[in-house]
Amino acid sequence: MGQNFYRNSEACLLVFDLTSKETFNSIENWRKEFLAALNPKDPESYPFVLAGNKSDMKEDIKVTNEEIEAYCKEHNNMPYFATSAKDDINLEETFNKLADLAYERNTQSEQVLLPEKPKYLKVTNEPKKKCCIGGGN
C-alpha cells in the first residue's frame, strides 16, 4: 500500500481466514510490510491485534489454537480474537481492543500536543453581513 496509506496509524489489525492455512502463514509478511512502510520508532512494541475470521465454520478450521497462541506469544503477546463477520462474533471486542491500544499508544507518544484550553467556534444566529466589494448594490 505504501507509506502514505499507513501514515499516522496508531495500531494495526491483522486478519486471517481460520479456514485457510495460507492466510495465517501470510500474517508475518503483512506485519513486516506494514512496519516497513510505517517505520515506527519502536517496531517491536507497535500495537497489533490479530483476528481469525470465519470462526463460525468450526468443521472447516485449518489453523490450530496452538499455532495462533505461539504466534501471538512470539509477538509481545499480541491480542487475538476468533471472529465471524457473518455471525457478528467478537467484532466489537476486536475493534474495542484495537481502539484501546491505539489510544494508549497515542497518549504515550511524545509527539502528542494537547491545547491548554480547548478553543470553540462561536455559533450565532445573526444574519451574515453583505459585502460591498466589487461596487455592486
Quaternary state of this entry equals single chain
What would you say the CATH architecture is?
Answer: 3-Layer(aba) Sandwich
- The percent range for strand residues is 5-15%
| Strand order within the widest beta sheet | 1-2-3
Number of distinct helices: 4
**What percent of the residues sit in helical stretches (DSSP H or I)?**
25-40%
CATH class: Alpha Beta
CATH fold name: Rossmann fold
Gap between N and C termini: 54 Å
The CATH superfamily title: P-loop containing nucleotide triphosphate hydrolases
Overall number of domains: 1
Please tell me what the overall shape is: elongated
- State the low-pLDDT regions, or none: none
Tell me about the biggest sheet?
3 strands, parallel
Characterise the protein shown here.
The protein is α/β, with parallel strands linked by helices and 137 residues long. It has one domain: Rossmann fold. The protein has helices at 3-6, 21-38, 65-74, 91-108, and strands at residues 12-17, 48-53, 80-82. Strands 1-2-3 form a three-stranded parallel sheet, with helices on both faces. The chain is elongated and about 70 Å long. The mean pLDDT is 85.
Quick summary:
The chain is an alpha/beta fold. Helix content is 36%, strand content 11%.
Set down the secondary structure blueprint.
Blueprint: H1 3-6, E1 12-17, H2 21-38, E2 48-53, H3 65-74, E3 80-82, H4 91-108
Parallel strand pairs: 1-2, 2-3
Based on the model shown, name its key terms.
137 residues; alpha/beta; 4 helices; 36% helix
